[in-house]
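From: lab user (bench 3)
To: helpdesk
Subject: output format question, protein + manganese (II) ion

Hello, I'm new to running complex predictions and I'm not sure whether the block I got back is the full result or only part of it. Here's what I submitted:
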Amino acid sequence: MESVSELLDSIDDVGRDARRGGYSRPVYSTAELDLRGWFMEQAQRRGLDVETDRNGAIWAWWGAPPSNADSGGALVTGSHLDSVPGGGAFDGPLGVASALVAVDKMRERGITAGERGTRPLAVTVFPEEEGSRFGVACLGSRLMTGSIDPDRARSLTDADGVTFAEAARKNGLNPEHVGPDPTAMARIGEFVELHVEQGRGQIDLGPADSSKNAIAIGSSILGHGRWKFTVFGQGNHAGTTLMADRADPMVAAARIVLAVQQVAAGRDDARATIGRLQPVPGGTNVIASKVEMWMDVRHPDDAVTASLVTKIHGKAQIAAAEEGCSVTLTEESYSNTVHFDTRLQSTLQDLLPGAPTLATGAGHDAGILAAKVPSAMLFVRNPTGISHSPEEAIERRDADAGADALADVLAGLL
Ligand code: GLV
Ligand code: MN
Ligand code: MN
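Helpdesk reply: Thanks, we reran it on our side. This is the complete output you should expect:
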């Protein structure tokens, strides 16, 4: 039986980013399509029936999909294969590879899904979890669950101006059919996502060479959202425009970046980030006419997040005005703080005695699904505590422990 690390080694070359380091695997890029092909082949090799749904999620079925909701629905596990720009090797693919290995392990234990009173099991891959191409995180699961307006989704554009509708069509979907999928939803009884831990949650609990805290059970996902600032100024010549005569949106943007940091640092548990900034037109000897920048804000209390954004917006307006500029702010997506289903969480605690629980600051498709179906997460310790970076890491023995834990959980729930 292949291990999780061996499976991941087989995609080690896919989507490597020589310029940024790590991996860049945006949805429907060559790299992500290669990974989708790899997943389908791995699933077929295991005798699973593979289908792609109207929103581009891939489902690999062990046992026939339930035909009606009365059956209690299938047990579903999986994650995503797309990445942030210059991301790590494990964010997404670890959950997908672990799910495939968990199927192998369950088979080895003599378990068969969808037969002799067991429910069917599906391994699924959600598209555009990171939102790194079209801007909205968890776009696939949001579409399926109906938590984004399909018209809005269709009109989202990537950095080259390609709309999601165009990308969907190019990849074999009918853009008119993307959106809520009650049939797919009715087939899900429970969803369990295994994921690399993306912070210090587990390594801070004890030594990383002990097996004790290698696997954690998710308790909640921090509320998070994305907003876009557009700072308008006067485009001009870098040599002929005196400093006193400028309305430079880049200077206003710099002041806004500082305001974001100051406001978030002044509030316990808040996190706020400007991770992407785009001057237009963008030339070394050009004072920009406009700067677009994207902000990520997170806090466990959704009302606090809203107040932080209001405060930042106020400071941004003052900074822009003082630089002779103006600024607009628009919300691009928001996900409430999610507390995972307590019944399912305590079942996982029974199945994995001694595993710690972990509240995560990262977003996941499991958080979107949690609004509609009982959902749970397992985290595998990350010895660097770093993610969304090439330095994200997993020890091989922890990856093995993750697949074992997932197999225990799926077998226990089946
Ligand atoms: C995804 O990993 C996110 O938390 O933004
Ligand atoms: Mn991520
Ligand atoms: Mn992820």
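A quick orientation on your result: Residues 224-335 form a domain with the Alpha-Beta Plaits fold (CATH 3.30.70.360). Let us know if anything else is unclear.
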